[in-house]
């Protein structure tokens, strides 16, 4: 589940009332990892809902190291409803999303970073447009909220590149997608 990690009012879609579940697990190692992810990025890819949640907040926190990075990096947002964004460096992808993302990925430079945007992540995985997947597993069962991976959908085989745990018990898992899952019999 990925809904409302940072604040109780962050994402109340569907009546979600358990936001802020990530806060008790914030620690130095996790913060260092998150900063390094943003430092490796040349651009952001955000779903329209995530963009709309961030737009009222981050422009007012340019003094925050991650906030400054979010504000200055190009933000690419696939959307049919966002037409004239005022937030600096926002670029709407309104046509062929797959072609646009492939073009962005082909540009020289560092990472194209997706944050939040669960529905967009699932779409990118289906179209084989994810090169690396960082999952942060927090030691909590929230019991409600939007699922990152759907109950029914395509399969994905993942190759573990790295795994580590922080002092608060968060496990950081880095995977590379490796095609579709295969199935067999144990034993």
How do the strands and helices of this protein lay out in sequence?
Blueprint lengths: L27 H12 L1 E5 L2 H7 L10 H8 L2 E4 L11 E4 L3 H10 L4 E4 L3 H9 L6 E5 L20 E8 L5 E7 L10
Parallel strand pairs: 1-2, 1-4, 2-3
Antiparallel strand pairs: 5-7, 6-7
The biggest sheet amounts to: 4 strands, parallel
| Straight-line distance between termini | 32 Å
Which secondary-structure class do the elements indicate?
A: alpha/beta
Strand order in space, largest sheet:
3-2-1-4
Examine the secondary-structure arrangement and name the CATH architecture. Answer: 3-Layer(aba) Sandwich
Apparent shape: globular
Question: Which series of helices and strands comes N to C?
Answer: HEHHEEHEHEEE
Roughly how much helix do the residues carry, as a percent range? 10-25%
- pLDDT below 50 for ≥5 consecutive residues: which ranges? none
Highest CATH level, the class: Alpha Beta
Compute the number of strand runs: 7
CATH topology: Dihydrofolate Reductase, subunit A
Question: CATH homologous superfamily - what is it?
Answer: Dihydrofolate Reductase, subunit A
Radius of gyration over all CA atoms, rounded:
17 Å
Strand content: 15-25%
Task: State mean pLDDT (0 to 100 scale).
Answer: 94
Give the helix tally.
Answer: 5
Number of folding domains? 1
């Amino acid at each position: 589940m990925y809904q409302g990690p940072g604040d109780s009012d962050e994402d109340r879609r569907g009546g979600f009332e358990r936001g802020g579940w990530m806060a008790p697990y914030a620690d130095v190692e996790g913060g260092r990892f998150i900063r390094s992810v943003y430092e490796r990025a040349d651009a952001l890819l955000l779903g329209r809902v995530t963009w709309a949640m961030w737009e009222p907040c981050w422009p007012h926190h340019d003094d925050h190291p991650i906030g400054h990075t979010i504000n200055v990096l190009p933000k690419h947002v696939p959307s049919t409803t966002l037409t004239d964004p005022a937030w600096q460096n926002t670029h709407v992808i309104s046509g062929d999303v797959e072609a646009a993302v492939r073009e962005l990925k082909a540009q020289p430079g560092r990472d194209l970073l997706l944050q939040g945007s669960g529905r967009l992540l699932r779409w990118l995985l289906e179209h084989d447009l994810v090169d690396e997947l960082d999952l942060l597993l927090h030691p909590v069962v929230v019991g409600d909220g939007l699922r990152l991976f759907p109950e029914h959908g395509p399969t994905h085989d993942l190759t573990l590149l790295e795994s580590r745990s922080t002092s608060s018990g968060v496990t950081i898992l880095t995977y590379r997608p490796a095609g579709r899952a295969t199935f067999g019999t144990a034993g």
